[in-house]
Specification:
By secondary structure, the chain is an alpha/beta fold. It has 2 domains: 62 residues; 195 residues, Vaccinia Virus protein VP39 (Rossmann fold, 3-Layer(aba) Sandwich), CATH 3.40.50. It has a 7-stranded mixed sheet with strand order 5-4-3-6-7-9-8, sandwiched between helices. A two-stranded antiparallel ribbon has the order 1-2. Helix 8 links the parallel strand 4 and strand 5. Helix 1 packs parallel to helix 4 and helix 11 packs parallel to helix 12. It is elongated, with a radius of gyration of 21 Å.
């Protein structure tokens, strides 16, 4: 790429990405990141030259994305619930469907517990997006979060610090750190729910870069829900709320696991996401 003005660099990148089967719009996000500009600043400077250092960074970022690196990992962040979260390849990139889980959970928390102070536990926290958002949106709360990956926990702790959220993080497998030690009002989780065989069929942007540990839910994608359901009666209080993100078609099975674990003394419901797909399961008593 010879020396370009900003609009020329953007045109080159958009065309290059389109040729490689990527979304051309990604070029603008990458250029904004390299320049540290807002969109309005970029368009106001469109005819300015792109200096050599920025040009090299931009070209490198565009080629990385063309080869399959998600934009969020190149930029190092993704927005969730209106806040920037740092992400690395040690954590799943936060997604809009998970924002729906948080929003619905907060509504149900209000309906079930009113003004009471409540305790949350986020299982498989990854970047900390769910736990940190709950701590910031519900400041009457006590929030704990657990993940089996120490590298993911480092990312989550950094995000909590940057965003000023008080969350207590634990390292461990699902609910195991809390058995016999602690009970919670609310359990929330976006666990791995993709069947093992399907993981290898995902878009390379996902399967080649996002952590398999956060994607692979076993043969049928339901292993984490089975394990959690068996342990949930030992970590929730008498009155409780459980919220899970699920894959399409998993709602009935996950609801069944909850009812079986609590011997039918639980109400459950399945909710679709903004695209009309099964996405959330809630259980409460």
């Amino acid at each position: 790429m010879s020396e370009f003005r900003l609009f020329e660099a953007l045109n080159w990148a958009s065309s290059f990405l389109q040729e490689k089967g990527r979304e051309p719009k990604a070029a603008e996000y990458l250029l904004l990141h390299v320049l540290g500009m807002s969109r309005s600043q970029l368009y106001a400077s469109f005819r300015e030259p792109l200096d050599t250092s920025c040009q090299q960074q931009f070209e490198k970022a565009v080629k990385e994305h063309a080869e399959g690196m998600p934009i969020q990992y190149i930029i190092g962040s993704e927005e969730f619930y209106g806040r920037p979260f740092k992400v690395t390849e040690d954590v799943l990139i936060p997604r809009p469907e998970t924002e729906e889980l948080v929003l619905e959970l907060l509504k149900r928390r209000q309906a079930l517990f009113g003004q009471e102070l409540v305790s949350y536990c986020d299982i498989g926290t990854g970047s900390g997006a769910i736990a940190i958002t709950l701590a910031l949106e519900d400041r009457r709360s006590v929030v704990k979060a657990v993940d089996i990956s120490p590298n993911a926990l480092q990312v989550a702790k950094g995000n909590a610090c940057d965003l000023g959220a008080h969350v207590q993080f634990e390292e461990g497998d699902l609910l195991s750190p809390f058995i016999g030690k602690e009970r919670f009002d609310i359990i929330v989780s976006n666990p791995p729910y993709i069947p093992s065989v399907t993981v290898d069929q995902l878009d390379p942007l996902v399967k080649d870069h996002e952590p398999r540990l956060a994607l692979d839910g076993g043969v049928d994608g339901l292993n984490p829900y089975r394990k959690m359901a068996d342990l949930l009666p030992y970590v929730v209080k008498e009155q409780f709320l459980i919220g899970f993100e699920i894959g399409e078609g998993q709602g009935e099975a996950v609801s069944h696991f909850l009812k079986e674990a609590f011997h039918e003394t639980i109400d459950t419901c399945i909710k679709n996401d903004m695209n009309g797909r099964e996405r959330l399961v809630f259980g409460w008593r």
